[in-house]
Amino acid sequence: MNEIVEQFEVTFNQIHQHLKELNGFPKNDNFAELLQRSKLKHSVIRVHFDQLKQYAKLRNAIVHERISGDYFIATPHKDVVEHLKKIKQTLDQPPEALDFATRPVLFFKEDTAITHIIEAFDQHGISQFPIYTKERNFLGLLTNDGIVRWLSQTMVDGHARLEDITPKEVLHHEKNTNVEFLGANATVFELEERFEKSLDEDRKLKAVILTESGSPDDLPMGIVTTWDLIKVDRQEDDE
């Protein structure tokens, strides 16, 4: 077989295998179908979707429309093969979730004065902070929306008492408490799967917190929101 054609087919088949894996090895393992499904879930596939779709047509022409022996109706250009190999390499070694996380993570303990945290919202331009017990157990995610909600429900005659108020008291007013945890060495694919699964289950995932072991009781190394996922697409577009 023509060497350039062989490289193209081998690489294409390896990418096809990745798509099967990303979709849980479904019975229908048609490349085009897997590509479409993967596009909805994974940024790497989204960015390369159009190219992979065209490469699939080229592959079908090579496999199904061979004229004779090593004489093919179409032969991939060397640049096409090199680009296909780059896509395959990205699937082999996907970026780490930590690359797209906000870090370092500023967090507070349950007995921190709420006035101090309110100042931190303004000073750091961050909209949410993880809260931990004195034993470093995760209590919840305190957001600026949660504080506003707490204020609106506790104000009397236009005034609210902030003295001696701690985040533990305010956490009860958080509307969305859905937070999940992943190990710091997780891939961006695993990260995206968490958000995709939450959508499938009709529950909005507020954030994914990355810790060394993936345990909620480890201190946070990074935090990812849906806004951070936009950075995944942008980074891929730049490459």
From TrEMBL:
Pfam families xref list: CBS (PF00571)
Signal sequence coordinates: none
Keyword Signal attached: no
Keyword Isomerase: no
Record keywords: CBS domain
Domain CBS, first and last residues per copy: 101-161, 175-239
PROSITE patterns, per the entry: CBS
Protein name, as recorded: CBS domain-containing protein
Organism, scientific name: Halobacillus litoralis
